[in-house]
Design brief:
This protein is of the alpha/beta class. 40% of the residues lie in helices and 14% in strands. Strands 1-9-8-5-4-2-3-14 form an eight-stranded mixed sheet, with helices on both faces. A three-stranded antiparallel sheet has the order 7-6-12, with no helix packed on it. The chain has a two-stranded antiparallel sheet with strand order 10-11. Helix 6 packs parallel to helix 7. The radius of gyration is 21 Å and the shape is globular. The structure holds pyridoxal-5'-phosphate.
């Protein structure tokens, strides 16, 4: 293979739906309406219907969706929010930006998602009324084990904010991610399974009061124009992104099925390699493979990456540093116990190329090269 393979092929995806996208963009240009408005209203309704939730509120990014969700729950100084240390930065920065303390609990070593048992131990030993919420992240496209978390949330009176940035269309026991907790937060960053052509995000909820609060907070805290009831932020989804997302929403199920087929091909090609673990899929869950992430022995990872890179095949590490080791959280965070599973995941995870246009023959080659790169090298 000589031509550089991408991790994800957004230009190829655009070519597939070019005429639909072009006419949606033209429609917005002709309308002269660029922020919120009819396109955003329509997208909100379509996404609410897809997820089976009462409310979907378009915002400027996934990071803002999380920030607004916590604002709407009145999280502030002195409060604590439990989350995972193995996620993108925005999962925890929203907590610290509101003056609250992120409490990092460990992950499940199989799914890489927040481990409810670690949360249970923390709450049992250290619960105070300051603990306001839990943010489980449905990492790589697989839902967190939610039922035990709902049990804990009910026992302790804590809210659940789902970070669904990587899990559009993922389900847990028949329930959609973003439709289970008190609030769901989506990112439409271009590389997401449902991605815009710029930044965008969405807050979802079944709670009428929370929905109204988020709608107000996203426009500087104003229910009525120029009358500001509280301090909000400017976080509006734009009409162009909404129109593009409406086109892509109609394709997302077909694309997700394609990703699931590609994941099965990877599973088949890689499962014979003794020292490697293919993604574990929880029973009764629909994994949408935002990432296809394998686990390899830490001493072999760099060698595998180099072998693939020399054949123009990219790989990525999500995430090379856990959140509890980020310098900017050092003075504010609380560790909710040993984070040994998260620390063990960091040096051993490896994400492989994953996009609708990926070819089976390329996956066979990737499997072969990974197998070879492990032979006799360690
Ligand atoms: C798990 C997770 N949470 C939050 C975000 C933030 O989303 P955005 O980039 O749209 O602000 C991302 C995006 O990368 C993410 O992967």
């Amino acid at each position: 293979m000589n031509q550089q393979m991408p991790m994800i092929d957004l230009a190829g995806e655009y070519r597939e739906i070019k005429s639909e996208i072009d006419s949606a963009v033209q429609r917005v240009l002709d309308s002269g309406h660029f922020i919120l408005g009819d396109e955003v209203d329509a997208l909100e309704q379509e996404i609410a219907a897809y997820l089976g939730v009462r409310h979907a509120i378009g915002v400027a990014s996934g990071s803002d969706a999380l920030f607004l969700a916590l604002m709407a729950l009145d999280v502030g100084p002195g409060d604590k929010v439990i989350t995972t240390p193995f996620s993108f930065f925005a999962t925890a920065s929203c907590i610290v930006r509101l003056g609250a303390v992120p409490v990092f609990c460990d992950i499940d070593h199989r799914t890489f998602d927040l481990d409810p048992e670690s949360v249970r131990k923390y709450l049992q030993a250290s619960y105070t009324p300051a603990v306001k919420a839990i943010i489980p992240v449905h990492l790589y496209g697989q839902c967190c084990d939610m039922d035990p978390l709902f049990g804990l949330a009910a026992t302790y009176g804590i809210k659940i904010v789902e970070d669904c940035a990587q899990s559009f269309g993922s389900t847990y026991k028949g329930r959609q991610s973003g439709g289970m907790g008190d609030i769901g937060c989506f990112s439409f960053f271009p590389t997401k399974n449902l991605g815009a052509y710029g930044d965008g995000g969405m807050v979802t909820t079944n709670d009428d009061g929370l929905a109204e609060h988020v709608r107000m907070l996203r426009v500087h805290g104003a229910r009525h124009k120029y009358h500001h009831e509280e301090l909000g932020i400017n976080s509006r989804l734009d009409a162009m992104q909404a129109a593009i997302l409406r086109v892509k929403l109609a394709h997302v199920d077909e694309w997700t099925e394609r990703r699931r087929v590609l994941a099965a091909v990877y599973d088949r090609e890689l499962s014979a390699i003794q020292w490697l673990q293919v993604p574990y899929v929880m029973p009764e869950c629909r994994h949408t493979y935002h990432q296809y992430t394998i686990r390899v022995p830490r001493e072999r990872r760099a060698m595998i990456q180099e072998t693939l890179a020399s054949s123009s095949i990219p790989t990525q590490v999500y995430y090379p540093e856990p959140l509890h080791q980020q310098p900017c959280f050092a003075s504010t965070q609380e560790l909710g116990g040993q984070l040994s599973n998260a620390e063990a995941a960091v040096p051993s995870v490896l994400s492989l190329p994953m996009y609708q246009g990926l070819k089976d023959c390329d996956q066979v080659e990737i499997g072969f090269l990974i197998g070879e790169s492990g032979n006799g090298t360690v």
